[in-house]
Write a structure and sequence with these properties.
- The complex is a heterodimer of chains A (145) and B (218).
- By secondary structure, chain A is of the alpha/beta class.
- Chain A contains 6 helices and 6 strands.
- Chain A has a 6-stranded parallel beta sheet with strand order 3-2-1-4-5-6, with helices on both faces.
- Chain A is globular.
- Chain B is α/β, with parallel strands linked by helices and 218 residues long.
- Chain B has 2 domains: 2-121, NAD(P)-binding Rossmann-like Domain (Rossmann fold); 132-215, Alpha-Beta Plaits, CATH 3.30.70.
- Chain B has helices at 10-21, 33-43, 55-60, 76-88, 105-110, 119-130, 209-216, and strands spanning 2-6, 25-30, 47-49, 68-71, 94-98, 116-117, 136-142, 147-153, 163-164, 174-181, 184-186, 193-194, 199-204.
- Chain B has a 6-stranded parallel beta sheet, with helices on both faces.
- The radius of gyration of chain B is 23 Å and the shape is elongated.
- Classes of the chains: A alpha/beta (145), B alpha/beta (218).
- Chain A binds chain B through residues 61-63, 83-86, 88-89, 92-93, 96-97, 109, 111-112, 115, 119, and chain B through 53-56, 75-78, 80-81, 85, 88-89, 103-104, 106-107, 110-111.
Protein backbone atom coordinates (compact mmCIF):
# COMPACT_ATOMS: atom_id res chain seq x y z
CA UNK A 1 0.00 0.00 0.00
CA UNK A 2 1.30 3.37 -0.97
CA UNK A 3 0.50 6.84 0.31
CA UNK A 4 -0.56 8.94 -2.67
CA UNK A 5 -0.92 12.72 -2.54
CA UNK A 6 -2.95 14.24 -5.36
CA UNK A 7 -2.90 18.00 -5.81
CA UNK A 8 -5.81 19.25 -7.90
CA UNK A 9 -9.21 17.57 -7.66
CA UNK A 10 -10.44 18.20 -11.18
CA UNK A 11 -11.77 15.48 -13.48
CA UNK A 12 -8.44 13.72 -13.70
CA UNK A 13 -7.30 14.17 -10.12
CA UNK A 14 -10.59 13.09 -8.54
CA UNK A 15 -11.00 10.03 -10.80
CA UNK A 16 -7.50 8.82 -10.13
CA UNK A 17 -8.03 9.51 -6.41
CA UNK A 18 -11.15 7.34 -6.31
CA UNK A 19 -9.64 4.45 -8.22
CA UNK A 20 -6.47 4.50 -6.09
CA UNK A 21 -8.52 4.51 -2.89
CA UNK A 22 -10.60 1.61 -4.22
CA UNK A 23 -7.39 -0.23 -4.99
CA UNK A 24 -6.54 -0.04 -1.29
CA UNK A 25 -4.03 2.81 -1.22
CA UNK A 26 -3.97 5.66 1.23
CA UNK A 27 -5.07 8.74 -0.72
CA UNK A 28 -4.90 12.41 0.25
CA UNK A 29 -6.27 15.15 -2.02
CA UNK A 30 -5.37 18.85 -1.88
CA UNK A 31 -7.38 21.52 -3.69
CA UNK A 32 -7.91 25.22 -3.08
CA UNK A 33 -11.60 25.02 -3.95
CA UNK A 34 -13.74 23.51 -1.15
CA UNK A 35 -16.42 22.65 -3.72
CA UNK A 36 -14.04 20.36 -5.59
CA UNK A 37 -14.73 17.87 -2.81
CA UNK A 38 -18.06 17.13 -4.49
CA UNK A 39 -16.25 15.52 -7.40
CA UNK A 40 -14.75 12.97 -5.01
CA UNK A 41 -18.18 12.06 -3.66
CA UNK A 42 -20.07 12.08 -6.97
CA UNK A 43 -21.71 8.74 -7.75
CA UNK A 44 -20.18 7.03 -4.72
CA UNK A 45 -22.19 5.03 -2.16
CA UNK A 46 -20.37 6.68 0.78
CA UNK A 47 -18.58 9.98 1.22
CA UNK A 48 -14.88 10.39 0.40
CA UNK A 49 -13.89 10.56 4.08
CA UNK A 50 -16.12 7.63 5.06
CA UNK A 51 -14.38 5.60 2.39
CA UNK A 52 -11.08 6.45 4.04
CA UNK A 53 -9.91 9.32 1.85
CA UNK A 54 -8.33 12.56 3.04
CA UNK A 55 -9.14 16.02 1.73
CA UNK A 56 -7.33 19.27 2.48
CA UNK A 57 -8.31 22.74 1.34
CA UNK A 58 -5.37 24.91 0.41
CA UNK A 59 -3.27 26.42 -2.36
CA UNK A 60 -1.06 23.96 -4.18
CA UNK A 61 2.05 26.06 -3.68
CA UNK A 62 1.58 26.76 0.03
CA UNK A 63 4.09 24.79 2.00
CA UNK A 64 1.79 24.53 5.02
CA UNK A 65 -1.04 23.14 2.89
CA UNK A 66 1.25 20.54 1.33
CA UNK A 67 2.50 19.48 4.75
CA UNK A 68 -1.03 19.32 6.14
CA UNK A 69 -2.04 17.15 3.19
CA UNK A 70 0.80 14.79 4.12
CA UNK A 71 3.56 15.49 1.58
CA UNK A 72 6.21 14.44 4.12
CA UNK A 73 4.76 10.91 4.24
CA UNK A 74 3.85 10.63 0.56
CA UNK A 75 5.34 7.85 -1.57
CA UNK A 76 3.70 9.18 -4.70
CA UNK A 77 2.90 12.76 -5.68
CA UNK A 78 0.52 13.68 -8.49
CA UNK A 79 0.35 17.25 -9.77
CA UNK A 80 -3.01 17.61 -11.51
CA UNK A 81 -4.07 21.23 -11.08
CA UNK A 82 -5.31 23.14 -14.11
CA UNK A 83 -2.08 25.13 -14.37
CA UNK A 84 0.95 23.72 -16.17
CA UNK A 85 3.37 26.02 -14.42
CA UNK A 86 1.86 25.33 -11.03
CA UNK A 87 2.11 21.60 -11.68
CA UNK A 88 5.72 21.83 -12.83
CA UNK A 89 6.68 23.97 -9.84
CA UNK A 90 5.00 21.83 -7.16
CA UNK A 91 6.32 18.65 -8.76
CA UNK A 92 9.85 19.99 -8.31
CA UNK A 93 9.05 21.05 -4.76
CA UNK A 94 7.81 17.52 -4.00
CA UNK A 95 10.92 16.04 -5.55
CA UNK A 96 13.62 18.39 -4.28
CA UNK A 97 12.26 19.81 -1.04
CA UNK A 98 10.37 16.81 0.32
CA UNK A 99 12.16 13.97 -1.46
CA UNK A 100 9.00 12.25 -2.64
CA UNK A 101 10.08 9.09 -4.41
CA UNK A 102 7.68 9.05 -7.30
CA UNK A 103 6.38 12.26 -8.84
CA UNK A 104 3.96 12.44 -11.75
CA UNK A 105 2.96 15.73 -13.33
CA UNK A 106 0.22 16.60 -15.79
CA UNK A 107 1.31 19.16 -18.40
CA UNK A 108 -1.06 20.27 -21.14
CA UNK A 109 1.58 21.95 -23.30
CA UNK A 110 3.52 19.28 -25.26
CA UNK A 111 6.62 21.46 -25.59
CA UNK A 112 7.00 22.05 -21.86
CA UNK A 113 6.08 18.42 -21.13
CA UNK A 114 8.81 17.16 -23.43
CA UNK A 115 11.50 19.45 -22.06
CA UNK A 116 10.73 18.76 -18.40
CA UNK A 117 10.56 15.03 -19.12
CA UNK A 118 14.11 15.33 -20.43
CA UNK A 119 15.05 17.09 -17.17
CA UNK A 120 13.95 14.07 -15.16
CA UNK A 121 10.30 14.73 -14.33
CA UNK A 122 7.66 12.17 -15.21
CA UNK A 123 5.21 14.16 -17.29
CA UNK A 124 1.83 13.16 -18.65
CA UNK A 125 0.60 15.24 -21.57
CA UNK A 126 -3.10 14.81 -22.44
CA UNK A 127 -2.68 17.05 -25.48
CA UNK A 128 -0.02 14.75 -26.83
CA UNK A 129 -2.33 11.73 -26.35
CA UNK A 130 -5.15 13.53 -28.15
CA UNK A 131 -2.93 14.48 -31.06
CA UNK A 132 -1.64 10.92 -31.46
CA UNK A 133 -5.13 9.48 -31.19
CA UNK A 134 -6.51 11.87 -33.81
CA UNK A 135 -3.65 11.12 -36.16
CA UNK A 136 -4.07 7.36 -35.81
CA UNK A 137 -7.80 7.45 -36.37
CA UNK A 138 -7.42 9.84 -39.29
CA UNK A 139 -4.90 7.53 -40.86
CA UNK A 140 -7.43 4.73 -40.56
CA UNK A 141 -10.17 6.85 -42.13
CA UNK A 142 -8.08 8.31 -44.91
CA UNK A 143 -6.21 5.05 -45.45
CA UNK A 144 -9.43 3.13 -45.96
CA UNK A 145 -10.70 5.57 -48.55
CA UNK B 1 22.57 44.23 -24.91
CA UNK B 2 19.27 42.50 -25.45
CA UNK B 3 16.74 42.06 -22.63
CA UNK B 4 13.49 40.13 -22.70
CA UNK B 5 10.95 41.21 -20.11
CA UNK B 6 8.05 38.84 -19.47
CA UNK B 7 5.04 40.53 -17.91
CA UNK B 8 3.74 43.94 -18.93
CA UNK B 9 2.32 45.06 -15.59
CA UNK B 10 3.57 48.13 -13.75
CA UNK B 11 6.97 46.62 -13.04
CA UNK B 12 7.59 45.25 -16.53
CA UNK B 13 6.30 48.35 -18.27
CA UNK B 14 8.39 50.82 -16.31
CA UNK B 15 11.41 48.60 -16.57
CA UNK B 16 11.02 48.46 -20.34
CA UNK B 17 10.75 52.24 -20.47
CA UNK B 18 13.90 52.76 -18.41
CA UNK B 19 15.93 50.17 -20.31
CA UNK B 20 14.86 51.60 -23.66
CA UNK B 21 15.87 55.09 -22.50
CA UNK B 22 19.25 53.68 -21.54
CA UNK B 23 19.66 52.36 -25.09
CA UNK B 24 19.03 48.69 -24.38
CA UNK B 25 17.25 46.55 -26.93
CA UNK B 26 14.08 45.28 -25.28
CA UNK B 27 11.28 42.84 -25.99
CA UNK B 28 8.29 42.94 -23.65
CA UNK B 29 5.97 39.93 -23.61
CA UNK B 30 2.40 40.33 -22.37
CA UNK B 31 -0.28 37.67 -22.48
CA UNK B 32 -3.36 39.70 -21.67
CA UNK B 33 -4.92 40.98 -24.88
CA UNK B 34 -6.30 44.21 -23.40
CA UNK B 35 -3.06 45.07 -21.69
CA UNK B 36 -1.06 44.21 -24.79
CA UNK B 37 -3.13 46.60 -26.92
CA UNK B 38 -2.66 49.42 -24.42
CA UNK B 39 1.08 48.89 -24.24
CA UNK B 40 1.39 48.54 -27.98
CA UNK B 41 0.18 52.09 -28.51
CA UNK B 42 3.27 53.29 -26.65
CA UNK B 43 5.86 50.65 -27.42
CA UNK B 44 4.82 49.44 -30.89
CA UNK B 45 7.01 46.55 -32.03
CA UNK B 46 8.85 46.26 -28.71
CA UNK B 47 5.85 44.50 -27.15
CA UNK B 48 4.85 40.99 -28.22
CA UNK B 49 1.56 39.28 -27.53
CA UNK B 50 1.68 35.81 -26.01
CA UNK B 51 2.18 33.55 -23.02
CA UNK B 52 5.80 34.01 -22.01
CA UNK B 53 5.91 30.53 -20.51
CA UNK B 54 5.36 28.99 -23.97
CA UNK B 55 8.63 28.00 -25.57
CA UNK B 56 7.67 29.21 -29.04
CA UNK B 57 6.72 32.62 -27.69
CA UNK B 58 10.13 32.94 -26.05
CA UNK B 59 11.80 31.72 -29.23
CA UNK B 60 9.84 34.18 -31.35
CA UNK B 61 11.12 36.92 -29.07
CA UNK B 62 14.66 35.73 -29.79
CA UNK B 63 15.53 34.19 -26.44
CA UNK B 64 18.49 32.40 -28.02
CA UNK B 65 20.36 35.70 -28.30
CA UNK B 66 19.04 37.34 -25.12
CA UNK B 67 21.58 38.61 -22.59
CA UNK B 68 18.94 39.15 -19.93
CA UNK B 69 15.61 37.52 -19.18
CA UNK B 70 13.51 39.34 -16.61
CA UNK B 71 10.48 37.45 -15.30
CA UNK B 72 8.14 39.96 -13.67
CA UNK B 73 4.67 38.54 -14.14
CA UNK B 74 2.21 38.59 -11.25
CA UNK B 75 2.41 34.81 -10.92
CA UNK B 76 5.29 33.20 -9.05
CA UNK B 77 4.97 29.82 -10.74
CA UNK B 78 5.14 31.53 -14.13
CA UNK B 79 8.22 33.48 -13.06
CA UNK B 80 9.87 30.29 -11.82
CA UNK B 81 9.19 28.46 -15.08
CA UNK B 82 10.33 31.34 -17.27
CA UNK B 83 13.57 31.69 -15.33
CA UNK B 84 14.25 27.97 -15.29
CA UNK B 85 13.61 27.52 -19.00
CA UNK B 86 15.60 30.64 -19.91
CA UNK B 87 18.63 29.53 -17.95
CA UNK B 88 18.61 25.80 -18.46
CA UNK B 89 17.12 25.35 -21.91
CA UNK B 90 18.27 28.53 -23.65
CA UNK B 91 21.39 29.08 -21.56
CA UNK B 92 20.62 32.73 -20.91
CA UNK B 93 23.36 33.96 -18.62
CA UNK B 94 21.53 36.56 -16.63
CA UNK B 95 18.11 36.12 -15.08
CA UNK B 96 16.11 38.36 -12.79
CA UNK B 97 12.95 37.00 -11.22
CA UNK B 98 10.21 38.71 -9.29
CA UNK B 99 8.79 37.08 -6.17
CA UNK B 100 5.19 38.20 -5.67
CA UNK B 101 4.51 36.33 -2.45
CA UNK B 102 7.54 36.40 -0.10
CA UNK B 103 6.55 32.95 1.13
CA UNK B 104 7.42 31.58 -2.29
CA UNK B 105 11.01 32.86 -2.05
CA UNK B 106 12.04 29.46 -0.67
CA UNK B 107 11.03 27.84 -3.95
CA UNK B 108 13.08 30.26 -6.02
CA UNK B 109 16.03 29.39 -3.80
CA UNK B 110 15.27 25.66 -3.99
CA UNK B 111 15.40 25.82 -7.78
CA UNK B 112 18.44 28.09 -7.71
CA UNK B 113 16.70 31.00 -9.40
CA UNK B 114 18.63 34.15 -8.53
CA UNK B 115 18.54 36.96 -8.15
CA UNK B 116 14.93 36.90 -7.06
CA UNK B 117 13.54 40.14 -5.71
CA UNK B 118 10.38 40.87 -3.82
CA UNK B 119 8.86 44.31 -3.42
CA UNK B 120 7.35 43.24 -0.10
CA UNK B 121 10.75 42.19 1.22
CA UNK B 122 12.33 45.43 0.06
CA UNK B 123 9.71 47.48 1.89
CA UNK B 124 10.09 45.31 5.00
CA UNK B 125 13.82 45.94 4.86
CA UNK B 126 13.22 49.68 4.68
CA UNK B 127 10.87 49.49 7.65
CA UNK B 128 13.49 47.50 9.55
CA UNK B 129 16.00 50.23 8.77
CA UNK B 130 13.69 52.92 10.13
CA UNK B 131 12.47 50.93 13.13
CA UNK B 132 15.29 48.52 13.99
CA UNK B 133 14.56 45.41 16.00
CA UNK B 134 17.02 44.85 18.85
CA UNK B 135 19.21 47.61 17.47
CA UNK B 136 20.37 45.47 14.55
CA UNK B 137 19.97 46.42 10.91
CA UNK B 138 20.94 44.40 7.84
CA UNK B 139 22.64 46.84 5.52
CA UNK B 140 23.72 44.32 2.91
CA UNK B 141 23.10 40.66 2.29
CA UNK B 142 24.93 38.94 -0.53
CA UNK B 143 24.59 35.22 0.22
CA UNK B 144 26.11 34.24 -3.14
CA UNK B 145 29.20 36.28 -2.38
CA UNK B 146 29.19 35.07 1.21
CA UNK B 147 28.99 38.59 2.56
CA UNK B 148 26.84 40.42 5.04
CA UNK B 149 27.07 43.87 6.57
CA UNK B 150 25.09 44.76 9.67
CA UNK B 151 24.72 47.84 11.80
CA UNK B 152 24.38 47.57 15.59
CA UNK B 153 23.91 50.23 18.23
CA UNK B 154 26.19 49.60 21.17
CA UNK B 155 24.25 49.30 24.41
CA UNK B 156 25.55 50.57 27.77
CA UNK B 157 27.17 47.76 29.74
CA UNK B 158 27.67 45.54 26.68
CA UNK B 159 31.09 43.81 26.40
CA UNK B 160 32.08 46.30 23.68
CA UNK B 161 31.21 49.36 25.77
CA UNK B 162 34.53 50.95 26.76
CA UNK B 163 36.55 48.27 24.97
CA UNK B 164 39.14 48.83 22.24
CA UNK B 165 38.58 47.21 18.86
CA UNK B 166 41.61 44.95 19.27
CA UNK B 167 40.46 43.65 22.65
CA UNK B 168 37.02 42.89 21.38
CA UNK B 169 36.54 39.15 21.11
CA UNK B 170 35.26 39.16 17.53
CA UNK B 171 34.96 35.73 15.88
CA UNK B 172 37.04 34.94 12.79
CA UNK B 173 35.24 36.09 9.70
CA UNK B 174 33.93 39.31 11.24
CA UNK B 175 35.33 42.82 11.28
CA UNK B 176 34.28 46.23 12.58
CA UNK B 177 34.56 48.37 9.46
CA UNK B 178 33.10 51.65 10.63
CA UNK B 179 32.00 53.47 13.75
CA UNK B 180 29.29 56.13 13.65
CA UNK B 181 29.05 58.55 16.55
CA UNK B 182 27.91 62.12 16.99
CA UNK B 183 31.06 63.53 15.44
CA UNK B 184 30.46 61.44 12.30
CA UNK B 185 31.55 58.10 10.91
CA UNK B 186 35.14 56.88 10.75
CA UNK B 187 37.12 53.70 10.14
CA UNK B 188 38.33 52.48 13.53
CA UNK B 189 41.94 51.74 14.47
CA UNK B 190 42.97 48.80 16.65
CA UNK B 191 43.09 51.14 19.67
CA UNK B 192 39.80 52.91 18.99
CA UNK B 193 37.60 52.68 22.08
CA UNK B 194 33.99 51.84 21.44
CA UNK B 195 31.34 53.52 23.56
CA UNK B 196 27.70 52.96 24.32
CA UNK B 197 25.58 54.84 21.79
CA UNK B 198 28.04 54.23 18.94
CA UNK B 199 26.65 52.60 15.86
CA UNK B 200 29.12 50.06 14.48
CA UNK B 201 29.10 48.62 11.00
CA UNK B 202 30.30 45.04 10.91
CA UNK B 203 31.23 43.02 7.88
CA UNK B 204 30.79 39.31 8.54
CA UNK B 205 30.39 35.87 7.09
CA UNK B 206 26.74 34.86 6.96
CA UNK B 207 25.76 32.89 10.06
CA UNK B 208 27.97 34.78 12.52
CA UNK B 209 25.29 37.28 13.45
CA UNK B 210 24.22 35.48 16.62
CA UNK B 211 27.85 35.28 17.82
CA UNK B 212 28.62 38.91 17.07
CA UNK B 213 25.44 40.56 18.34
CA UNK B 214 25.90 39.71 22.07
CA UNK B 215 29.21 41.61 22.12
CA UNK B 216 27.37 44.85 21.46
CA UNK B 217 24.13 44.27 23.32
CA UNK B 218 23.26 43.32 26.86
Amino acid sequence: MAFILIVGAGRVGSSVARSMLAAGHEVSVLDEDPLSHERLDAGQPSSWEDSGGRFTIGAAIERDALVEAGIEQADVFLATTDGDNTNLTIAQIAQKMFGVESVLVRVMDPARAEWYEAQGLQTICPTHFAICEFQQRLERVTGAA
Amino acid sequence: MYAIIVGGGKVGLNLARELLDAGTEVALIEQRRDRYLTIESEFAHVVQYGDGTELWVLERAGIQRADFVIAVTGDDEDNILISQIAREKYLVERIVARVNNPRNRQYFELLDIRPAFSATDLILRLIEHEVPQQGLIHLLDLPEDHLEIIEIEVEAGAPADGCTVQDLDMPDGSLVISVLRESGGFVPQADTVIHAGDEVLICLDPGLESTVTPLFTT
